[in-house]
Input
Amino acid sequence: MKRIVPVTICFICIAQLLSGQLYSDSLSFFQPSAKFNKTRFYTALGFSSATYAGFSYGLYNAWYKDYDQSSFHFFNDWGEWNNMDKAGHVYTAYFQGVLCYKGAKWTGLSDKDAILTGAICGTLFQTTIEVMDGFSTEWGFSLSDFGANAIGIGAFAFQQAHWGEQKFLIKESSTGMSRPDVSVMAVSGNSSMTLRERGNDLFGSSLPERYLKDYNNQTYWVSANVHSLLPKGNSWPSWLNVAMGYGSENLYGGFSNEWESNGAYYEINDLYPRYKQYYLSLDVDLTRIKTDNHFLKSVLSVFNIIKVPAPALEITSQGEVIFHFLKF
Output
């Protein structure tokens, strides 16, 4: 189980936006250039290249170094984690494309070239991970992951080229909650462990680890900007979106809730059945909040990849209907 840490990728695009601090010109540091600016372009290119090299090196040491390597091979992981990881790939590729596009516009590239830059950057980062997977015995090159990446990049590029804006945003939310401290018995023997211990083994014990890795905590959203979809002159607030989300619960293994620990075998599929969650909620498109402050615009663009907490209606694959006063 792997997932790209959004903070790492955000740094690449933030670096592009902030690199203007290395020199002085007539523009505000955070103001996009109306025409091609060589100094900004090469500064951003240098930051992006250095960050990509650091990202690749760090990713290898964090995820792959301790696992055996093999010849390039494929791996079919469709259905693993209720395909929450596929939603994560769509999300990550999408926001990489969006933020790198905005970084390219900051340098003064044309809209067409900026879209191409966003698509190339998103594809490069995601494909690097897939190739590393392909040489790892623990995983393998996943065609479904590659397809999910393409959907994310395509969602960004199509909207920007066709509408000149993002009417449908792809976002994420996560609670970082720990798993319940409930004991489960091994199928054979007298061994037991808690679901919290199992969750810590899978996703980590710290709040940042659980926030970033625990699929039970994550929800992926398609956030639609109603104002831009309605006829011109409508009274719907331009910043208020309607969002549809997807999540899962009771995921204690990739394909099923079965695992081995300290020589004991556990199986809790009946006690804690895996199920899917579908949400309807409100959201805020932070980039449509009107401000003349270019620094604030940059900050809002970065944080716009996160779904704003709001009331939500949940429908589960088990047929339950639940109202959340505030869904994170």
In short: The longest helix spans residues 38-64. Residues 1-164 form one domain. The longest strand covers residues 240-249.
